[in-house]
Amino acid sequence: CPKEISAVGAGTYRDMGFPVGSYMVPSSSRKQFGPVYVMEGAGPQHEVQVYDTPQDVVFGVPARYIPLPYRCSGTGQVVYRRHLYCHQHGSNLIVKFHLKSYDIIADLPLPGAGYSNTFPYTSGENTDVDLAVDELGLWALYATNASAGKLVITKIDHKHMELDKTWMTSYPKRSLGNAFMICGTLYATDSHRDVPTFIRYVYNTETGEEQLLDPGEM
């Protein structure tokens, strides 16, 4: 860091055999071939499929299934430092679950966060709370009644499961198709119904500056 997106390439995709879900890897290093964690659907989900390598995903050979003692909501789960973080279905809680001991380590409420399709993305049901990981750590993206449905960004102290800092943006969350973080900067796409889809909104948590991009700019 700092890093900024300058262009978006064609990318690649993999057909998982189901239309909606979560595909999670514990490392962004291309040289490190770790396990892949998959959750099918948008919730409520109560099971994680574990593949030892990305190649096992290609052949559809999971190594094991991890049952969860609670239900996850949406597609915004993340795997970070041997833990699964997810939005607990029907609540404003973020749950931290250890992927080796299979224990719930802690849960953290997001004050005022909408759930049960109060402020979802355009891309699907149960996407009220979206978790993201970047070079700086763990983030939660959501909206509240106090923010009038505008997107809220919160940095989470993952070690102590505490709220670190929160930023309120000016962009309505229900108008966004998805969002992600890079080096503390949020990038949000326009509606998934807009084809092709572009990055339309950028918010820098370091400076508080925001940008509304023209269609096709990125």
Question: TL;DR?
Answer:
With 218 residues, the protein is mainly beta. 2% of the residues lie in helices and 46% in strands. The chain has one domain (21-212): Neuraminidase (6 Propeller), CATH 2.120.10.
Give an account of the 3D structure.
This protein has one helix at residues 54-58, and strands at residues 21-24, 36-40, 45-51, 64-80, 83-88, 93-98, 104-109, 130-134, 137-143, 150-157, 162-172, 178-182, 185-189, 199-204, 210-212. The chain is mainly β. It has one domain (21-212): Kelch-type beta propeller (Neuraminidase, 6 Propeller), CATH 2.120.10.80. A hairpin with a 4-residue loop joins strand 10 (150-157) and strand 11. It is globular and about 45 Å long. It starts with 20 loop residues before the first strand and ends in a 6-residue tail after the last strand. The mean pLDDT is 92.
| Gap between N and C termini | 20 Å
* CATH top level assignment: Mainly Beta
CATH homologous group name = Kelch-type beta propeller
Q: Would you tell me which CATH topology applies?
A: Neuraminidase
Number of helices: 1
The structure class reads mainly beta
Strand coverage percent? over 45%
Output mean pLDDT: 92
How many structural domains can be distinguished in the coordinates? 1
Sequence of strands across the biggest β-sheet: 1-2-3-4-5-6-7
Q: What does the largest sheet look like?
A: 7 strands, antiparallel
Query: Roughly how many Å is the radius of gyration?
Result: 17 Å
Low-confidence stretches: none
Q: How many beta-strand segments?
A: 15
What is the H-and-E element order? EEEHEEEEEEEEEEEE
